[in-house]
Each structure stands twice: as C-alpha cells, then as structure tokens.
TrEMBL record, chain A:
<dbReference type="InterPro" id="IPR001017">
    <property type="entry name" value="DH_E1"/>
</dbReference>
<keyword id="KW-0670">Pyruvate</keyword>
<comment type="function">
    <text>The pyruvate dehydrogenase complex catalyzes the overall conversion of pyruvate to acetyl-CoA and CO(2).</text>
</comment>
<keyword id="KW-0809">Transit peptide</keyword>
<feature type="domain" description="Dehydrogenase E1 component">
    <location>
        <begin position="66"/>
        <end position="356"/>
    </location>
</feature>
<dbReference type="Pfam" id="PF00676">
    <property type="entry name" value="E1_dh"/>
</dbReference>
<keyword id="KW-0786">Thiamine pyrophosphate</keyword>
<dbReference type="InterPro" id="IPR029061">
    <property type="entry name" value="THDP-binding"/>
</dbReference>
<keyword id="KW-0560">Oxidoreductase</keyword>
TrEMBL record, chain B:
<keyword id="KW-0809">Transit peptide</keyword>
<comment type="subunit">
    <text>Heterotetramer of 2 alpha/BCKDHA and 2 beta chains/BCKDHB that forms the branched-chain alpha-keto acid decarboxylase (E1) component of the BCKD complex. The branched-chain alpha-ketoacid dehydrogenase is a large complex composed of three major building blocks E1, E2 and E3. It is organized around E2, a 24-meric cubic core composed of DBT, to which are associated 6 to 12 copies of E1, and approximately 6 copies of the dehydrogenase E3, a DLD dimer.</text>
</comment>
<keyword id="KW-0496">Mitochondrion</keyword>
<dbReference type="InterPro" id="IPR033248">
    <property type="entry name" value="Transketolase_C"/>
</dbReference>
<dbReference type="Pfam" id="PF02780">
    <property type="entry name" value="Transketolase_C"/>
</dbReference>
<protein>
    <recommendedName>
        <fullName>2-oxoisovalerate dehydrogenase subunit beta, mitochondrial</fullName>
        <ecNumber>1.2.4.4</ecNumber>
    </recommendedName>
</protein>
<dbReference type="InterPro" id="IPR005475">
    <property type="entry name" value="Transketolase-like_Pyr-bd"/>
</dbReference>
<dbReference type="InterPro" id="IPR029061">
    <property type="entry name" value="THDP-binding"/>
</dbReference>
<dbReference type="GO" id="GO:0009083">
    <property type="term" value="P:branched-chain amino acid catabolic process"/>
</dbReference>
Length: 398, 369
C-alpha cells in the first residue's frame, strides 16, 4: 500500500507550456524564461491559494537543477562513506526529498531563518556550507562545518539553526527564532521543518499554540515522506492530513516533489507571515529513497517496488529535468555538463573528507561553557589535563 | 606520578600521543571491552545473545500473563535492536504494537494502562530519547502510589531503554542516564551486564509491583552471548553480584563497564600482582549497600567506574555511602574513573570512555597511596 503522501502526488506531471513561453531574447535558441503551472494545492483555513502559475527563469532553472544534483550526489557519497566505515554513528539521507529544501531555499531572503531535524545535510549545503564542509563533518574531520564535533545530525551555517537530533525538538526553537525576528522589527520568517513522524510529538502542538497565540512569523513545514522511522504515517497518525493538524493554524498542502510548486508555496507563506497574519503549516508530500537511517535497510516496512515506482515516476530531479528541457529552457548538453561538474565537485570533496585531519584532543573540552569557572574539565587524565576553552563568538549572536 | 605507573602510563600515553588516525584505527577496530560471560546455573540452558534473551523474557511474559502489552517505536517489526522480533506475529496486534514517535505519550499511556491493571512493557528506542518522558516517569509514574495515599499505582509498568556507548553513537545515541533516575524515590532502576541478567532482571521488573526502568547497554545486544536458563526465572532487584573475589581493591561497575573492570582485575594481577574483587552492582535503585561495604571493609580500597560523567554520576552516591560506612577501613580515598564532564563526544569517544588503562592507573594509585 502506498503511503498517503505517495498516493496524493502520483498525478500527471506539471505542464510547462512552451506556448506560454515569454521569450525575452534567446540564446542558442533556448528560452530565457517560461511560464509554468504549479501543481494543485490543498488549503486549510486559507481563502486564496498560491498562484497557479509562475515564471521560471533559465538562471533559476540552472541553479535549482544544480542544487538538487549536488544534494543527491552528496548523499550518495555519504552512503558510500558510511558503508566503508569512514562515517560512523547515525546518518540520515535526504535523497528523494531534494525539491522541498531547494524549493524553500529559492524563496528565502537573506534574513530568513531555517531550522530542521537530523536529515540536514542538504539543508546545510543550501544554506551556505560547502560540499567539503558537509562531507568532512560527516567523517568527523576539522574542515567540517562543526569542526567534526557534531557529525551527521548537527550541522550549522548562518541563519541555519541546525540539524537537531531529537525527534520534534527543533520545532519549538523555530517559534523562538520567529519571535526574535519579529521582536527585532525585521520582516524575517523562520521555517521550522520536521517529518511526519515528529508531527506526533506533543511539543509540536505546544508550539502551534504559542505561535498562533502570539502570531509569530513561523512557517511549520511537515516533510511527509510517508514513514516515521519504520512506521507508515497511516499507522502512526490519526489524521494524516498534516497541513490541517495545526487546527487554528492555517495550512497548505503542496507537492514536495515539484521544486517550482514548493517555491511558490514558500513565497506565498513568506508573504502571509510578513503581513502579520501569524504562523502557517505547510505539508510537503515527498518520499525518501533510503531507510530512516543507515542502520535501516528501508525495505522491511515497504516494498522495493514502491521505491522503484517513485524513483521512476516521480523523482524530483528527473521531473525537473524533463520539465526544463521539454520547455526549451535547458539543453540536454547543459544537463550533462552540470552532472559532470557536480560529480567532480562531490568526488573531490569526498577525497578531502577521507584525508582531512581531525581536530586535536584538546577540543574534547572546548565550548562546553561560555566560560568555565574552573580552568580544567573535571576528570580528564591527570598527566594530560584538558583545559576548557572557547573557539570564538557564536555566529548566531553576532 | 608518571614514573610510578610506568606500564599503564606508557601504554596510555602511547595511545593518546599516536597520530589521531592510527589511534582511530586501533580503537575502532576493537570494542573497548572483552565480554566476560556469566556462568549459567544448573538446569536446561539455551545459547542466546542479549537481544534474544530479552525477546525470550518478553515472550514468556506475553505467554504467561494475558494482560501483558509490549509497545514502543517500531516494536511491531522487532524494534531497531530486534528485541521484540516476531512477538507481534505470535501475540497479535492488540498486544504488541507500534506507537507514534512521542516518548512522553508512550510513557503516559503505559502508566494509564498499568494503573488499570495491564502489565505494560514500554520501549523507549534509545535512552537518549527518554527525556521528553522525564516528567511522566519522575512525576507521574514514580509518585503515583505515594500521592494517592496508596490507593493507586502503576507498579505494572516496566520501561526498557538501550543505553551506553556503542563505538560510534555520538551525542544522542550513547548516553547513560541512570543517575537522573536514581534520584527518584518510587522508581526502580536496573542495568544488566549480559543475557542471563537481562532476562532475569526484565522478568523480575515486569513482575515487581513498582514502576521499573531497565537500561540495556546496547553494545551488548549482539556482543554478549551466554548460556541462558531456558525457563522462567527472576533476578533479585537490589542485589549486587560479587563476580570475582579479591583482597586488595574492590572494583565496582555495571553494564558494559563491569566487563572493562574484569579485564582491569586481570591486568592488575598480571602487571602488578594486585588482587581485585569485582562487583557488578546490577541494580542502581535500590542499590546493594551491604555487599559493597562488606567488600570495601575487606579490601580497604575501592574504585567505582561508570560511563556517565563524573559530577553527580551514580558513583558519587556510592562513594559518599562508603566513606560514611567504611571510613576507618579505608586505606585510600574512594576512586572514581568515569566519563569526562563533557557532552558525550562524536569523534572523541575512545578518549572519553573510562578505559581499562585509566582504571588500571587508578588501581595502582590506590595501592600506592
């Protein structure tokens, strides 16, 4: 049985009508922008849906395609690194869900914030970490975005408040970040992402209440990939229409496999929040190709056929590639060039992630406190005591 | 001090000073302990690893107690550590089932079910995830009997949670939270060191008329294999196990760390001719003061070792009681070798752990005091 998210999004592909092309001058006979229809939305306590059509520029198309490819390749590399035991610990891959992050990122302004759960490699990259910084973080090396101290679930960059390891725990933080953005008088919003499994955590509902009570510019994004760890959404949630679960918080269902539709939804949500209307819940219907984590083969609670079907029929990258090439926005050759270029970038970063050195042992006792009242951390070895120290100012407070 | 303990210091310094890459190789290839199996009691036994022994205990419970329920995240298809494998097939979806990802809800639900008469066995997928349920365990479960003047209780509740270092678990899959719960009158807390204890303790906890927490060292699920009694039995809660007798130093640990201490005892004998008595505390709350004090009065020296950080670790409670009860018998201050006062680290796990070398050094210091 397909999970509800999969059933809902198995619809005909988006038409990006060549006849609607707005040809503002062409290069190599390719359009510089095209008008696209977005996939249908579902609304909860909202009067008007996001726009049913939008313009996709060639420049943006190149960017989104490249970003989705980088995330896909990076995760494939992480998968291999994990299998060769260069990545240890817990590692959750984003493959299949790329359009959600790339679509939202496309709508973000420089002063908007993002916080997500443990499936965070793609987000860290999109928010500014390099492929090297992501992969070396995964292998625990010093070039990692958290100096190798966090690993898979704990990556951070400017305005990206991290991967967070405990299911649902990042959602209340999102409301706090949104409050601060409002309090400081910016029109910034915070996107707080969580999965369909985390949607059942009590603190998510506590946060809906606070966010609506204080009308915070917080956009809750439930990435519904159909499975909370090994349990399908239907078996874990009394109501799988996750966009309605904020009750008094309006909601929007969006096809999370279509990057353009996600971008429009995110733009709509930002406009909604910055106009002072308070929070919004977006449910992005998507799918993960790998198991919940690397220790889950991902096949004991769903069929291989189901995964294959999504890969063949609804893959966000293939879909976007077809859309842009059919519309004459990108050429097959350009796609090939991007693929080769991305492969090279990720391969090089992978090599660095294998050879980069680790931080010194002294950092075991670094950054536990802002200032430790005792110079040394208790109970470290007497002949090699570890002094508590700080590396620098926190980036989020500068 | 460096000159005094030449052997272990040399080895340890070698490990610390070797290139990080080399050290990583050495420590990652090998688990940080060798498993010391418990001798099976007489009677029919079956070879089982720890997850199989736990599965067996749950099987016996579901078979012999019609009111018994087993639930938690992904429990229906066996759980991430396979402890509940095939139980749903055997006993049906109404008795063995998945819950949503909501730890606070899981424990609260378990308290309610237990309070109305069902034997409830709740699994929290990792002990690191137990904190959303902290309020339910500490305020609701542990105080139910007391606050109702004895009229209501949830004694039929048992919580299982995998704990401890696993070699690569990093910040949120490695912690040992026993000390937080040891501070909670009304609760019982136990930690098995292998399959025999795991089965016996789980069966005893399930049948104990108080809410119990079984913290299962996750690295032992597969690594620990013993001849486990095939039938139904219990292991006394609150009773420590003197596994190896000795005369010079008492070593106290639980869970995985017990096995580290067994190796320390062996090394101390070989390298320094020191005779160690090794105690598996087995039960954290209540804990066996008598067994500990009888041993310390005999040896006069004691080392307590656990993976959790030093400050307010459960070793602190044991040390305080020892100085109170055995003050005039002590030849040296009570020693504690534990995890450092840092978060459980990602790449630094080999340095953070209270390894056999750090413990051996402490044993030598106790003798040389």
């Amino acid at each position: 049985m397909l999970p509800s998210c999969a059933r809902n999004i198995n619809k005909p592909t988006i038409s990006c009508k060549k006849v609607l092309q707005l040809i503002n001058g062409t290069k190599n006979n390719y359009a510089t922008e095209v008008k696209c229809e977005t996939k249908p939305y579902k609304l909860h306590k909202l009067d008007t849906p996001p726009s049913a059509s939008t313009t996709l520029s060639r420049e943006d198309a190149l960017k989104y395609y490249r970003e989705m490819q980088v995330v896909r390749r990076m995760e494939a590399s992480a998968n291999n690194l994990y299998k060769t035991k260069l990545i240890r610990g817990f590692c959750h891959l984003y493959s299949g869900q790329e359009a959600v992050a790339v679509g939202i990122k496309a709508a973000l302004r420089s002063h908007d914030a993002v916080i997500t759960a443990y499936r965070d490699h793609g987000w860290a990259y999109l928010m500014g970490a390099s492929v090297v910084e992501v992969l070396t973080e995964l292998t625990g090396r010093k070039s990692g975005c958290a100096r190798g101290k966090g690993g898979s679930m704990h990556m951070y960059t400017d305005n990206f408040y991290g991967g967070n390891g405990i299911v649902g725990a990042q959602v209340p933080l999102g409301a706090g970040i949104a409050f601060a953005l409002k309090y400081k008088g910016t029109d910034g919003v915070c996107f707080a992402l969580y999965g369909d499994g985390a949607a059942n955590q009590g603190q998510v509902f506590e946060t809906y209440n606070m966010a609506k009570l204080w009308n915070l510019p917080c956009i809750f994004v439930c990435e519904n990939n159909g499975y909370g760890m090994g349990t399908s959404a239907q078996r874990a949630a009394a109501n799988t229409a996750f966009y309605t679960r904020g009750d008094y918080v309006p909601g929007l269902w969006v096809d999370g496999m279509d990057v353009v539709t996600v971008r429009e939804a995110a733009r709509y949500a930002i406009d909604y929040c910055k106009s002072g209307k308070g929070p919004l819940v977006i449910e992005a219907a998507t799918y993960r190709y790998f198991g919940h984590s690397m220790s889950d083969p991902g096949t004991s609670y769903r069929t291989r056929e189901e995964i294959q079907e999504v890969r063949q029929k609804r893959d966000p990258i293939t879909h976007f590639q077809e859309l842009t090439t059919n519309a004459g926005l990108l050429s097959e050759n350009e796609i090939k060039e991007i693929n080769a270029d991305v492969k090279k970038e990720v391969d090089e970063a992978t090599e660095i992630s294998k050879t980069d050195s680790s931080i010194g042992l002294d950092e075991l006792a670094t950054d536990i406190y802002a200032n430790n009242l005792e110079p040394q951390i208790r109970n470290t070895t007497p002949f090699n005591p570890l002094t508590h120290n700080r590396l620098g100012k926190a980036v989020n407070l500068e | 001090m460096l000159q005094k303990n030449s052997i272990c210091v040399k080895i340890l310094k070698g490990v610390l000073k070797s290139k990080d890459g080399e050290c990583r190789k050495i420590l990652r290839r090998n688990a940080h302990f060798s498993f010391y199996p418990e001798k099976p009691p007489s009677g029919s036994t079956t070879k089982m690893n720890m997850f199989q022994a736990i599965n067996n205990a749950l099987d016996i419970t579901l078979r012999t107690d019609e009111s018994a329920l087993v639930f938690g995240e992904d429990v229906a298809f066996g759980g991430v550590f396979r402890c509940t494998v095939d139980l749903q097939k055997k006993y049906g979806k109404s008795r063995v089932f998945n819950t949503p990802l909501c730890e606070q809800g899981i424990i609260g639900f378990g308290i309610g079910a237990a309070a109305s008469g069902a034997t409830s066995v709740a699994e929290i997928q990792f002990a690191d995830y137990i904190f959303p349920a902290f309020d339910q365990i500490v305020n609701e479960a542990a105080k139910y009997r007391y606050r109702s003047g004895g009229e209501f209780n949830c004694g039929r509740l048992t919580i299982r949670a995998p704990c401890g270092a696993v070699g690569h678990g990093a910040l949120y899959h490695s912690q040992s939270p026993e000390a937080y719960f040891a501070h909670t009158p009304g609760l019982k807390v136990v930690i098995p060191r292998g399959p025999i204890k795991a089965k016996g303790l789980l069966l005893s906890c399930i049948r104990d008329p108080n809410p119990c927490l079984v913290l299962e060292p996750k690295i032992l699920y597969r690594a620990a294999v013993e001849e486990v009694p095939s039938g139904d039995y219990g292991t006394l809660i609150g009773k420590a196990d003197v596994v190896q007798e000795g005369k010079d130093v008492t070593l106290i640990g639980w869970g995985t760390q017990f096995h580290v201490l067994m190796e320390v005892a062996q090394l101390a004998k070989e390298k320094f001719g020191i005779s160690c008595e090794v105690i598996d505390l087995v039960s954290i709350l209540p804990w066996d003061l008598d067994t500990v004090c009888n041993s310390v009065k005999k040896t006069g020296r004691v080392l307590i070792s656990h993976e959790a950080p030093l400050t307010s670790g459960f070793g602190a409670e044991i040390a305080a009681c020892i100085q109170e009860e055995c003050f005039l018998h002590l030849q040296a201050p009570v020693a504690r070798i534990t995890g450092f006062d840092t978060p459980f680290p990602h790449i630094f796990e080999p340095f953070y752990l209270p390894t056999k070398w750090r413990c051996l050094e402490a044993v030598k210091n106790l003798i040389d005091y």
